[in-house]
Amino acid sequence: MRAFKQSIILGLVLLFSAGSLAVDGEDSAPESKTESKSRLVNVSILFDYVGFKEKINLYEVPPERILDVGDSKTLPMAKEFPFSKKLPLISKLRRGEVLPFAMVVENNTDDPMYFYSTPHTMKPEENALGYQLFCLCIHKIFMIPPKSRWYRVGSISLQNTFMGEVIAVNHSIIGLTADEIARKKLGKLIVR
Questions:
Q1: Which residues contact 77 (CB under 8 A, 6 or more apart)?
Q2: Cis ω before 124 (30° cut-off from 0)
Q3: Which of 41, 60, 72, 140 supports an S-S bond with 85, CB 3.0-4.6 Å?
Q4: Which residues contact 70 (CB under 8 A, 6 or more apart)?
Q5: Tens digit of each residue's pLDDT (9 = 90 or more) over 20-49
């Protein structure tokens, strides 16, 4: 059942990404270069860090990989990693398009790393209609074992009705130590 669900989700993502569906009553006639450019939106996915030394990098999710939005996993550094193409933190996205991505953190240390994300903010607020983001802010603590890579699959989509030309989404990434987690009795919030 999960493989079937993943195949349907991937198919929908590819279908919308290719722009082959008419949405909201639009016809699917090819756009001129001017119309196409006017549909491009500058999308920024940004992170601020508080007490967390590593950086989150964004990677392209290859179309041949069947991954669900929200999947999180850690892999030892020596194991093959499913993502290779880094994405810029600022991209251009067309209205009606879905951009799946992987948020990746490498832990090259000998100690586990812990972090969580605050709920995201977006600017300008008046452009909030017509976008959807699946991200990190799930009210859980993520743990990255030593000498491992961690990833979480997310996506951002813009409906055809998205009103702006730019959107910047920001998360604050808060680092924690094992002592803080034990002292504050937060162990049940850790995603392993």
A1: 106, 108, 147, 148, 149
A2: yes
A3: 60
A4: 134, 138, 152, 153, 154
A5: 323 333 334 444 444 444 579 999 999 999
Considering just the CA atoms, what is the radius of gyration of the chain in Å?
18
Contacts of 48 (CB under 8 A, 6+ apart): 170, 171, 172, 173
Q: Six-digit token pair at 32?
A: 């001129």
Rounded Cα–Cα distance for residues 121 and 169 (Å) = 6
Contact (Cβ atoms closer than 8 angstroms) between residue 122 and residue 170? yes
Residue ranges of alpha helices (H) inside the chain are 2-17, 33-38, 178-183
Query: What would the two tokens of residue 191 be?
Result: 């995603």
Average model confidence (pLDDT) across the chain: 80
Q: What residues does each domain of the chain span? A: 2-21+37-191
Token pair listed for 28: 């699917």
pTM higher than the cut 0.85: no
Contact 49, 175 (CB under 8 A): yes
Least confident of 3-7, 81-85, 87-91: 3-7
